Amino acid sequence: MAIIILAIESSCDDTSASVVKDGIVLSNITATQRIHEEYGGVVPEAASRRHEENIIVTIKKALQVADVDIKELSAVAVTKGPGLLGSLIVGTSFAKGLALSLNIPIIEVNHMTAHVMAHFAEEPKPSFPFLCLTVSGGHTQIVQIESHNAMRILGETLDDAAGEAFDKSGKLLGLGYPAGPLVDKHAKNGSPKFEFPIPKIPGLNFSFSGLKTAIRYFLRDGIKNDPAFISSQLEDICASIQRSIILHLMAKLKRASQKTGITQIAIAGGVSANSGLRAALKETSQKNNWNYYIPDFQYCTDNAAMIGISAHYKFLDGEFSDLYLTPQARMKITSA
Ligand code: KG4
Ligand code: ZN
Asked: Which CATH superfamily is domain 4-117+301-316 in?
């Protein structure tokens, strides 16, 4: 019998639902919350309320696009964490209610594992072992993946995440929220003529907080000489910020490949949508004979399809949760 999973993702500010049948994504519907743009960042309480408003329509749409009747579902999958607790409570409560009423199992999924597992939504799928640079708004990690259910973190950020570095730098430039895609857009027309320090952090860990401070002083000095400095140099500043972030990410990824001898390399998470990072991975892969895996845009930023794909493999392993499932704001990737 077919395994048909309805997956729900509500860890931050996107309400997403997906139907995955036998490991194939039939639908992936996301309701993006625009309210946070007004505040220049995600307001947790507002995010929870919007999830409550959006969750039923998003799920209905996911079932409709997949052409699947709710009674055909084999299991409900949901993000357990990490994320905003209020947002996670909406998703997990709804999933538990649905599982109870349909009398089907519930499968909990770690959001960071799911970003990696997004690579199994598409062909070609990476073979094991592979490394994944997961770069999102809350996390920056190099993960070694041995199998669908065994992965460990080799290095991670000691302070800000790469997405945060994009968002905070963009905010200093007066760009809207989230600034990452806007920095990317402006960088396309600029040249990286400004130098920002690349942090020297030992091992495979990252640090991005120094970059933010360097940019703050750089802009202060630039504006002192020319009040229109930001607007006249916006594209080159964006290109320079983007290059610094990418150089730091790629240096650590290269080191991880050298250290482990693994040449199957993937990127995942919201920042993997960045055109500069995608190009840098392609170029480095060609130089170093890596097999590289870049997700389709719909699987980079938060989406429920990655939750459904993770849950599919958990279903095959018989890994189900029960109705005592509680969300967790902080959650490590485990080798479970
Ligand atoms: O994975 P994601 O959707 O949510 C989290 O789990 O955090 O990642 C969101 C992050 C934000 O910081 C956003 O600015 C960044 O991904 N992002 C980008 C791009 N698209 C999204 N950063 C740089 N360039 C992009 N094109
Ligand atoms: Zn994410």
From this structure: ATPase, nucleotide binding domain (3.30.420.40)
